């Protein structure tokens, strides 16, 4: 079980990653879930999450796009369904029905394509596909959120009554309007609407003559608004019926709520499942933007990050159209702790943060921007000490704060820990701080912990050289321009280039010389040696690159020459064969010429034919010898090829024959009576013969060189 401190998440700015993922979620609940993403507690759950996100990412590229997962918040139903006799709002019912349909669609899709999305299919495997729930809600509430007339028989009856009463109200009012208009009791406006009811606009002087209920008057008092008596009676009846309708609707919704009450757990499953799917979708979309993927999960404790990008830096540079430099980092049991040294502003801290943040993302189920051949593993805890952590609240100096942090490290470090410490040991007297840092680092080493530290201390660089499973590394620096190259070089310590950088930035040379004299000569020599080694390495790297390019060029040239040589050999063989053939033809031609000359002289055919036959037999004997020289293997190959071709030919002929039989209707038999002497041919044949004799429906057909017996029905007259 893993536990990662809150301080690690803060040091590595993990919250900025979750904020960026949140932008891609499509529901408020999904956004909230993305924002609260944290490292998972066990490796098994983590692998399921990572595979699910990876499958969702793959779905963007293939034809089997995962259906929409949008939904409205269902939580208002959770508390209400627990309370007896409670009734859900109409919009809550509609949200539950929509969520049920969305989940069913997703489950059916993932079941159909579970070979493509095995992990995503597994996520919802415990949720039942339930179509009754939506059906029941749809039977009561229509797509506009209105209660259906046929939701109950009583409701249907009440609504019919309401329609009838509305008709009677309109009819009675129009009758009264016409009646009092004829009596000239009404004002010019004739009617008005008061309290959502149609009323007569009666002249004040005639108000006692009009039967009905007074609902008001005009500002001047010249008009009195009266609802006719008949209309008033129907209105009262309508109010009672509308009240009955509202009571019936409450009853229907109460029954529907009671129907849903046993399905509370299923509705909760719907919400949790759709939130989970939304986080997969958001993480997959984020991975698409930062070119992230799922690397190889190693069974051993190792980290091999190839072309690893800091995701926040990569995205910021992407928006600004800037280049981001990837890193290659390899930590494994034979090289567990890497001590990175070199000048400031060379990218040491970014390397530390890249490793830490990528590991946090991975252990939170988020894909990371690395090469697909990268190898990763699980760490129970990740500890960090990055940046200036001066505690104002506790009145602690930076060094005191960092020592308290080290105490925490020493308590938690083991063989499943990854620690990242920036500027290890700084904040105190260099010699004393360096000595303390050295013994703490030795302790981490003995606990078999994994980690990266950055430092300027020479004694830590020496310690890394002395210990078998510890390695020095430096951020490559261009010794000519003193600009960082942002590339981590394993295997050697880095110089801080203190005096070189000072000189570049305009510090007088005389002051730099005085500074050199003030510090012990050994330290300058050590730093100078490291600086010289780095320069030599840089030069060797350039030379190596140049040699590789030349080697590649020569390889291509050699390949081209080999191809040319093969072509020349082939041509020479062809020319030789052609030459031999021509020589043979010349010799044969000369012999024929001699025979022709002899025949010309003596004009005797028999000797000529005898000599020609001898010559032909001699040539054929040579051909036989050549044929006999053919290897047994070649004969077998030829035999196999012929066998295969014959098989195919038989198959093709059979297919053709079947096709022809299907396509062509049977040819009608000729009605012509055949007799001796007729020129005939076999059906679908071109050879013509004549009939010599006919006996018992069979004819003897003479083809000149041979005769054959054929049934008369197989013959036709040859035109």
Structure notes:
By secondary structure, the chain is of the alpha/beta class. It folds into five domains: 13-144 and 259-292, MutS, DNA mismatch repair protein, Chain A, domain 3; 150-257, Orthogonal Bundle (MutS, DNA mismatch repair protein, Chain A, domain 3), CATH 1.10.1420; 303-499, Rossmann fold; 553-625; 679-717. Helix content is 55%, strand content 14%. The chain is built from 21 helices and 19 strands. The chain has helices at 6-11, 14-22, 28-35, 43-59, 75-82, 90-112, 118-123, 132-140, 153-182, 229-260, 264-289, 311-320, 348-362, 398-412, 430-446, 458-466, 498-504, 509-518, 521-602, 605-628, 632-663; strands spanning 186-194, 197-203, 212-217, 223-228, 296-297, 303-308, 327-331, 337-341, 375-376, 381-385, 417-421, 450-454, 470-477, 484-490, 679-682, 688-695, 698-702, 707-711, 715-717. A six-stranded mixed β-sheet has the order 10-11-12-8-13-14, sandwiched between helices. A five-stranded antiparallel β-sheet has the order 18-17-16-15-19, with no helix packed on it. Helix 15 (430-446) links the parallel strand 11 and strand 12 (450-454). Helix 9 (153-182) runs antiparallel to helix 10 (229-260). The longest helix is centred in the C-terminal third of the chain and has 82 residues, at 521-602. The two termini are 98 Å apart. The model is unreliable at 389-395 (pLDDT under 50).
By CATH reckoning, the class of the largest domain would read: Alpha Beta
Distance between the termini: 98 Å
Q: Report the principal-axis shape.
A: flat
Oligomer status: single chain
Query: Average pLDDT across residues?
Result: 84
Strand order of the largest sheet: 10-11-12-8-13-14
Strand content: 5-15%
The number of strands is 19
- Give the CATH topology of the largest domain: Rossmann fold
Proper CATH architecture of the largest domain: 3-Layer(aba) Sandwich
- Overall radius of gyration: 49 Å
CATH superfamily of the largest domain: P-loop containing nucleotide triphosphate hydrolases
* Class based on secondary structure composition and strand pairing: alpha/beta
State the domain count: 5
